[in-house]
Structure formats: structure tokens, C-alpha cells
Sequence to fold (324 residues):
Amino acid sequence: MPAPNPNACRSLLSLESVPREQLNAWLDRAAEFAVAAQKPSPAAAGVSTGTAAGAATATSSLLRGHVVANLFYEDSTRTRNSFEVAARRLGADVLNFSAAGSSAKKGESLLDTARTLAAIGADVLVVRHAAAGAAAQVARAVSRPVVNAGDGRHAHPTQGLLDLLTMRQRWGDVAGRHVAIVGDIANSRVARTALAGLRTLGARVTLVGPATLLPRAFAALGAELSYELDPLLPHIDAIMMLRIQQERLAPATIPSLREYAGRYSLTMDRLNRCKPDVLVMHPGPMNRGVEIDEDAADDPRAVVLQQVANGVAVRMAILEWALS
Ligand code: ASP
Fold:
């Protein structure tokens, strides 16, 4: 039996059962980092970098002397790079581990790898793995805070926070807003995580997709379910489009991508039937021409790159919290 992790309370494994006050505290801090990032860089302005704990600055030495280890067993563009930028902006050192090219190829287990990185000096472990529950296992086995960067279909909490931050920046408050999450709900950790955060903050969520990708069990988590997208369009405040998770898709779940796209893709025609100020969101990577059309992805209503930028601010807030 591994000894219990004394840092488990500083681990972020999912947004389910995180209280509203804690969600808002993370979002408030991330919002400060996001604002600081908009200001001219201290170097450009001829000002020294901020170091004081408490004040959010674009770069600081709050985490100087700490090592953030990124353990990625699944591909990533946005999450891994933004954890790295977030850690560096706070003055931390970064250790990047990816399974390809490591001793994982020689049979070393996830837990032994995590223990090894902790022994090298990692103070916090950021874990992405194809197995649901992988980050929680690491958190039990290694006496370091752990941040889940995506575990199979289960959870992707920093993605959920950056989605919430993006909505809050537009609306001030997500309570009472209506968000549609469209696509491969069954295989999406993003949908499950956004649902948890949005429900805690009082938003209404409709999950949309074909029956084979929309498990009825989500209704018990507070979601409304719809097999049709078109009737919802005029009523929603945000539409979050999801990629078909081919890597997790059971064979023959959808008859064809073309048929799927015909019913669920965000085309310009569908976008123009939404409210004029609807937020178009996507966690990336986008498969243009499948779940979202070229023009809709580049439309001014799309906030996809704002979501990406907010990912850095959110990860700064979470690393600071985990190591505080
Ligand atoms: N990037 C997101 C994730 O890691 C969404 C996706 O891959 O479609 O879950």
C-alpha cells in the first residue's frame, strides 16, 4: 500500500464536486493573470519583473526554485505547451516527459515513472493519460500535488476552467446562461468537465448528438439531452463543438462522418440562426469540415484562440494554488 499523499488536497483531478467558491477563486485568479498578460511586457516597458506574492503579473518568480513535470502519455498541443508557458511565467523550471522516447517504451509503469520524476525533483506532476483515473492513481502513489491534464474519457479540469473563464469574460457570470455542447459526448472528457463546472455555477447545459454518442446517463448529472441541434440554435448563448474522438470511438458508432456532419456540423447557415452574440467554442484540435465549417471556425463569434490564451492564465492559477 502506498503511503497516502499529503499533497492530495492540492491536487486537481476533476471539477466534479468542486464547490462554487473554489471554482470562483481559481477563476478570479486566472482572470487576473489573463489581464496581466494583456499589459505590455515588463521588459518592453523597461520595468523589472514582478515577484510579490498576491499581485498577478504577466511574469513573476512566484514559483522560482520549483519544478513542474509534464507527464504526457497522450498527444497534446495546447495543454502541454500552455502548462509549460504557465510554469515558466511563474519562474518555475519545467521537466517535459513524453512516453515516446522514454523508458515507458522499455516497460516502465506510469507510477514508477512518476516516482522517478519526483525523485529527480519534480514538485508538481501534470499528468495526461489514456486511462480514466490515471492522474488519481499518481496522486495516491506520489507525495506531490497532481494536476490532471486529461485522463481518457473522464476529466480535463483545466480545460473546463478555461472554458468557464472565457464565458465569464464575456458575460460576467455564467449563471442562467444556456450552453449547448455538441458532438461526441460519450467519449469526451471536455463535455463531462464543462458540464460539471457549468452546473455548479448555475448555467443550463444541453448536450447534443446522435443517440449512439449521447448516453442517457448524463441526464443524472444535470444535463438536458437533445438528438437535434437545429431547434436549439436561436435559444443558446454559447455553442461548444466537439471533435469525434476517433481514438476512443467504438466501431460503427456513426454510419459516416458525412452523415454526422450533415446533422451536427456548425455551418454558417446554422451559425446565422443563433443569437448574434453567441459564443462559438471548441477545445481543439478542430477538424474543419467535420464538426465545424471553415468559415464558422474563423468567424468573429468564434473564441477558440481566446480559449487557448486563457489556458495559460488558468494553468498559472492552478500551479500557483497547487504549490502554495
Ligand atoms: N484537446 C481536448 C482533449 O484533450 C479535446 C480533444 O482532443 O478533442 O480532450
User: Anything to note?
Assistant: Residues 150, 156, 189-190, 243, 283-284 surround aspartic acid (CB under 6 Å). Confidence is low (pLDDT under 50) at residues 44-52.
